[in-house]
Write a structure and sequence with these properties.
single chain; 161 residues; alpha+beta; Alpha-D-Glucose-1,6-Bisphosphate, Chain A, domain 4; eight-stranded antiparallel β-sheet
């Protein structure tokens, strides 16, 4: 299995699928994905920081956070959790409201145990191909997904398994 990111933009013009295999057990990957104190250490593209103001990881729960870019711009975000199946799957939708970035999509994150390592797949589905392309062009979402997964890898290597 590849050690680096795999990014699929070709399977479906409305989707963005990122995959990475981490040299860490699934329970640890799940823990650093579902605990805001860990998320603050790795969530977001290179140069971004993430500050969480609310985090409730249950169906219907909300994660409110601000991503601050390297240029000092703040990006308000709201994620609503649709499904939490520990330690296998998280389903959420992003957006909703005038107080967050104008980006709407649904994500399924799967955590697969592969012999003591973890294969993580993020599948983001946008309302249309045009909307996915806009988010890639305006926000660099494709590079952001790759960089976020790479930052998670670095963080997992520093937290120990």
């Amino acid at each position: 299995m590849p050690a680096k990111n795999s990014l699929d933009l070709d399977s479906d013009p409305r989707t963005m699928i990122g995959t990475r295999v981490f040299d860490a057990p699934r329970e640890l990957v799940w823990q650093v994905w579902t605990d805001p104190k860990h998320l603050a250490q790795w969530w977001g593209p290179d140069g971004f920081t993430t500050t969480t103001s609310a985090y409730d990881a249950r169906p219907g729960g909300i994660w409110r956070f601000v991503m601050r870019g390297p240029d000092g711009r703040d990006y308000q975000n709201r994620i609503t959790f649709d499904e939490i199946v520990k330690p296998e799957r998280i389903v959420y939708h992003h957006g909703g409201g005038d107080d967050v970035e104008p980006v709407q999509f649904k994500v399924t994150v799967t955590f697969e145990d592969v012999g003591g390592k973890t294969k993580l797949t993020m599948r983001g589905v946008f309302p249309s191909a045009a909307e996915r392309d806009r988010v890639i062009k305006e926000y660099g979402a494709d590079k952001g997904m790759e960089q976020t997964l790479a930052r998670l890898d670095v963080y997992l290597n520093t937290t120990g398994s």
